[in-house]
Amino acid sequence: MVTRFDFRGLLVVPRFLTHKLIPLLLFVLSTPLNAHVPVLEGKNDSSSEKPWDIPRPYDKSIAYYGYLEGGDSDVFQFEVTANDLSSGSQSNTTPNGQQNPLVIYFGTLVPYCEHYRTYLLELTLRNQTGQILTTVSNTEQGREWYEPYSRHRYYWQKDIHFPITQPGVYSITLRHPEGRAGDYVFAFGEKEMWGFYDVLNLIWVYPKLLFKAEIRQPGCG
């Protein structure tokens, strides 16, 4: 007797790949060319005792998706060395021999919805001695902006370019002046570049972004 194998049950797998995995893989392969690198806060809340470390290169575009608890503040930290100030396309020497500063870029976004229409964040940059170098305050809500990869809308709040001229450890504190809780995106760096592990991590991160798992406030984004 000849045993016949029924292949029809296997059709479920190709169908799932077609509708779920293939679009995701195509997105992963195309996104690194023209998008920021997303980082989710998850359960790892940052603070002055345990800040988020910003990796080099400091012109790399990264978006940190986080949430402020009531009365909370989140802290981001990066270390600038003499090598950071003397090498790289954005920080070299001028024709007269003077050293150009390392110019950093940072700013905030919040989800676009009525709940966050008056949610205005504040950023404070400090050096390693705690001296305030600059403060970015929002006095009115920013423009609406549609993020095509997560398919969410945000208020684009103030951003800034700031020159770093001395080596040291720098921190950026993000808070709401009145201590209101809420979702936010902290943007750092402008150059869209991806590493191997960034691409692998996106396979885990992107579904969360797509289904708004990073936004706690219902009906926003």
Order of helices and strands: HEEEEHEEEEEEEH
The coarse silhouette is globular
Helical percent range? Answer: 10-25%
Radius of gyration: 21 Å
Number of DSSP helical runs: 3
End-to-end Cα distance, whole Å, is 61 Å
CATH class: Mainly Beta
In terms of DSSP E residues, the strand content is 25-35%
Catalogue the unreliable spans. 1-14, 16-20, 88-96
Mean pLDDT: 79
Instruction: Label the structural class.
Output: alpha+beta
Total domain units: 1
Largest sheet: 6 strands, mixed
By CATH, the architecture is named Sandwich
Describe the 3D structure.
The chain is of the alpha+beta class. The protein has a single domain, classed as Jelly Rolls (Sandwich). It is 18% helix and 34% strand. It has helices at residues 12-30, 82-86, 196-210; strands spanning 37-40, 52-53, 62-68, 73-80, 102-111, 122-126, 132-137, 143-147, 152-164, 168-175, 182-188. The strands form 2 sheets. The protein has a 6-stranded mixed sheet. Strands 2-4-10-6-7 form a 5-stranded mixed sheet. Strand 8 and strand 9 form a beta hairpin. Helix 1 (12-30) crosses helix 3 (196-210). The radius of gyration is 21 Å and the shape is globular.
What attributes characterize this protein structure?
single chain, alpha+beta, Jelly Rolls, 18% helix, globular, disordered N terminus
Give a concise summary:
The protein is an alpha+beta fold. The chain has helices at residues 12-30, 82-86, 196-210; strands spanning 37-40, 52-53, 62-68, 73-80, 102-111, 122-126, 132-137, 143-147, 152-164, 168-175, 182-188.
